[in-house]
Amino acid sequence: MADRTESSIVIAAKPGIVLDIIADFEAYPEWADEVKRAVILSEEGDGWADRVEFTLDAGVIKDTYTLDYEWDLAHDGTGVVSWSLVKATVLKAMNGSYTIAKDKTGCKVTYRLAVDLHIPMLGMLKRKAEEQIVTTALTGLKRRAEG
Predict the structure, then answer these.
(1) In the CATH scheme, what is the homologous superfamily, with its name and number, of domain 5-146?
(2) pLDDT on residue 1
(3) Pairing of strands 106-117, 91-103
């Protein structure tokens, strides 16, 4: 897997509120523009989704894929939500995470994403698609949490 894209944003909301938005996968199409559909496939009874299927249209990257989630969180909503690719058609890998930390005005969210494709693509185009996904997700998350 090549380089990853990383970006952070400060959100004027409590970490728990931001975490609830991140965990509400079925609502992603309402605020994450590239996500056209999200369906929870499994939960292990702890209240957190373990497997989620997404349909993504991020310009040069279009696919329906399944992610496996890990939740390493404190009671206040701080911590890390990470994922890895289980299956896809176009994507070969999609690993990433949201790190939620307290900030004096609410919380700071850092999104890390690394994507690899089965089809050859210029690294510059793949990186641009990663950046688009990360930027759109963070601004959409901020808008949703502060709205």
Answers:
(1) START domain (3.30.530.20)
(2) 42
(3) antiparallel
